[in-house]
Design a protein that fits this description.
This protein is an alpha+beta fold. The protein has helices at residues 9-19, 41-53, 57-84, 90-94, 104-124, 137-144, 147-158, 162-175, 180-190, 209-222, 226-249, 268-284, 286-290, 303-318, 321-334, 339-351, 356-359, 365-387, 406-426, 471-487, 509-517, 523-543, 676-687, and strands at 449-452, 462-466, 494-495, 502-507, 551-562, 575-578, 583-585, 590-592, 603-608, 613-615, 618-621, 628-632, 639-643, 650-652, 655-668.
Length: 731
């Protein structure tokens, strides 16, 4: 059905109606609850919460679980009915253009009615009328923030079902990564007997799999595994499209309750157009929902185009030029005049000279359909803004200007320019460190001097100290690492976890002590490794003016060696840019303090032992991970210290020749996360009559708490403290 230039506003409104299908399905009066039909999940949730506060734990678990499963089944039913009714009576629509124009509006109304009845009947087979009504914004917020799992983790704890409690706690924490109380609860669950690693599963993972694929693709890129990166980026694109369709299908039901009596100020066409536009806006907002990680406030801008950009580069580097052309043409559907993309396309075409079929490869069909549909919807929505006073916030940056009516373009240009300026300025915002540490304190160790401070390192809470070790001490520690590697300590000869072009050797204080007990290294050298850590702790505590007692979180001597014959053409890093206690997201400049990051780390330090190698420079960057703000050349006895948070992203350049050794240390103000291996080593030395500094042990654990109620959960049973070890994460 075509829209002609002389079409009246009444018939334009019917274009909205064509997009508005069954928006009122399921919004009629309630009927008696039928056996076997889905009940309102908000009612089940309220029952579960009431049982929770009555401390009726069995009933609380029953109703809370039912509310979660019922909501999930309702979402699946909506998708099923959306698919079943998608093409109902489509043959009538194709005949409308050839029918008598005086009957056109009646034909459209008949088609809409049939489609709406299809959805109403389909949903009615599975759910009660009450279950089909829209829920309140409060309930949407509760489930959006995963608060039912907050209640469930305490409920299962009370029922002594610790594996289920751990799963509920983890599921809640994924969407609430800054919730310190829940993080503490999870740590307590981890130390409980009978709770396994498999218990910490995200029960909402099914709806977030595209983020797992996104992270896997980025990881493959960082290790220059381009074949794997291509596979993962393709999976991520496909899953993103799938999740978008799942989200759009939920718009088949009314997003809000409509009044039984129509607004007398509106005509039937205006009201129908308003409802239709609400449906289209709902579908457009799926772009934002799908591109927002659980627990994040802001979406990743241009999420789908961003994936396509990564994919075509990975395909090019993996040698799949035909695939790169196809992906790049798909990207150009979003930004058809982008100079970089056009230059890349010319490069790919020149490389494929002679392969006409590959050169003429078109865009990915699914992407072409996605863009075409989005543009149609945007045109209708912007028409509604210009003519029907409809409110719409465009979720995309790539929307072309020609879809915006002339009356709105000036305002649209100003808003878009303001947004781009804001994004550009966001890269220049001065970083504020909220860790509570303040650089500039005294240096209490004789012979140690400040080489570079915040000003010299162009940042906040950073320092370079020289003279921490003598040359003989550096030589002894390097020899210790060499002997440990020769006898085998579990890391000998491994490829680095960060790059395939380097080997990686590591040693902890406890491992050094045990090698000394076996007579394989000198006892004095093992003790030296421990003493260096104590010196660094004194320096860090003083210079950064620690507001709380510091504890060792982890200590690791690590050497990286360039693998001969594998250095030509290297473009990767020895250690990619990262932040020590949060997950850095360069696209949004956010840093999320959540697992698998070591969220308990507060201060970081690296003591270098040598400089007889090529590359291996330490560097700080801006949050974009690309703008280098300072570089530090390693040398014997040089220490780099900094706060472990988002103001200090850092990395290490490639070691292209030789062997680079350093002692990495992390400190925490949380006694719970102190380095238990270090304490075990100190206990063994003490048992041999050698005096060492030891921290107090045996904190009494507080009872688990609900993040919502804050109620005491009673006295927790005493559990033996398990050793806390961390993933090796060296600089």
């Amino acid at each position: 059905m075509a829209l002609h230039s002389n079409t009246s506003p009444v018939y334009v409104a019917f274009l909205f109606i064509l997009n508005y299908v069954s928006i009122t399905a399921g919004s009629g009066p309630s009927s008696e609850r039928s056996s076997g039909l889905l009940s309102p999940y908000d009612e089940l949730y309220y029952r579960g919460v009431r049982a929770y506060f009555r401390e009726d734990w069995e009933r609380a678990a029953e109703f809370l679980e039912k509310s979660i499963s019922t909501r999930d089944m309702l979402l699946r039913t909506r998708r099923k009915c959306h698919d079943e009714c998608l093409t109902v009576e489509d043959d009538k629509v194709s005949k409308l253009d050839t029918a008598d124009s005086s009957l056109w509006d009646l034909g459209v109304l008949d088609w809409i009615q049939v489609r709406a009845e299809c959805v109403r009947f389909c949903m009615g087979r599975s759910a009660t009328p009450a279950a089909l009504l829209p829920v309140s914004s409060d309930i949407e917020y509760e489930f959006g923030t995963r608060n039912p799992y907050n209640y469930l983790q305490v409920t299962y704890y009370k029922l002594d079902k610790m594996d289920k409690a751990a799963s509920a706690a983890h599921t809640f924490f994924v969407a609430n990564p800054s919730h310190l109380e829940m993080r503490n609860n999870i740590e307590k669950y981890r130390r409980m007997i009978g709770v396994k690693d498999e218990s910490f599963q995200d029960r909402e993972r099914e709806h977030e799999q595209h983020w797992e694929m996104y992270d896997a693709a980025v990881l493959a890129e960082s290790s220059s595994d381009w074949v794997k990166a291509v596979k993962k980026w393709k999976e991520c694109v496909n899953e993103t499209l799938k999740q978008t369709e799942e989200c759009r299908a939920q718009c088949v039901m009314a997003p809000r309750v409509f009044p039984e009596e129509p607004d007398t100020a509106q005509g039937v066409y205006e009201r129908a157009a308003d409802l239709s536009l609400s449906l289209l806006s709902c579908k457009q907002m799926c772009v934002t929902l799908v591109s927002t990680r659980p627990g994040r406030v802001s979406a990743v801008e241009d999420f789908l185009p961003l994936q396509l950009e990564h994919l075509h580069i990975a395909q090019f580097k993996a040698g799949d030029l035909k695939g790169a052309v196809e992906t790049l043409r798909s990207l150009l559907l979003f930004y058809p005049t982008d100079s970089d993309s056009l230059s890349n396309l010319e490069l790919y075409s020149q490389t494929l000279e002679g392969d006409t079929e590959a050169q003429e490869t078109g865009p990915i069909q699914e992407i072409a359909k996605y863009v075409s549909r989005a543009l149609q919807e945007k045109r209708l929505l912007y028409f509604g803004m210009a003519n029907l006073d409809f409110k719409f916030s465009d979720p995309d940056l790539w929307t072309p200007e020609d879809v915006v009516p002339e009356a709105l373009r000036e305002t649209w240009r100003a808003e878009k320019e303001q947004l781009h300026e804001k994004l550009k300025q966001g890269q220049k915002v001065e970083e504020v460190d909220e860790s509570g540490f303040y650089a500039g304190g005294p240096v209490p160790v004789v012979g140690v001097t400040i080489t570079m401070d915040d000003q010299g390192l162009n940042g906040t809470n950073r320092v370079v100290l020289d003279g921490v070790l003598s040359q003989s001490e550096c030589d002894r520690v390097i020899q210790l690492a060499a002997v440990a590697a020769s006898v085998g300590d579990g890391y000998r000869g491994r490829r680095s976890p960060h790059t395939p072009h380097e080997k990686f050797e590591g040693l902890t204080v406890l491992r050094a002590l045990k090698l000394a007990q076996d007579g394989q290294v000198n006892q004095s050298d093992a003790r030296l490794l421990h003493e260096i850590g104590e010196t660094v702790k004194v320096l860090m505590d003083s210079y950064f003016r620690s507001h709380s007692p510091l504890y060792f979180a982890y200590t690791h001597l690590v050497c990286r060696s360039a693998i001969p014959g594998q250095q030509e053409g290297r473009s990767d890093l020895s250690h990619p840019v990262h932040v020590d206690n949060c997950i850095l997201e360069p696209e949004t400049r956010q840093c999320w303090r959540e697992t698998p990051a070591f969220t308990h780390r507060d201060l970081s330090a690296v003591v270098y032992l040598n400089d007889d190698f090529e590359g291996g420079d330490f560097f700080f960057t801006d949050r974009d991970t690309k703008t280098v703000t300072a570089k530090v050349k390693p040398s014997c006895g040089r220490l780099v210290g900094f706060t472990s948070g988002p103001v200090n992203p850092h990395g290490v350049t490639a070691v292209t020749e030789g062997r680079r050794c350093a002692l990495a240390l992390w400190f925490t103000t949380e006694k719970l996360h102190r380095d238990m291996e270090r304490e075990e080593a100190e206990a063994l030395w003490a048992a041999d009559g050698q005096s060492v500094l030891k921290e107090e042990k045996g904190d009494t654990e507080s009872a688990l708490k609900s993040a919502r109620s804050g109620r005491s959960q009673g006295k927790e049973r005493s559990k033996e403290r398990d050793r806390v070890t961390g993933r090796r994460d060296e600089l």
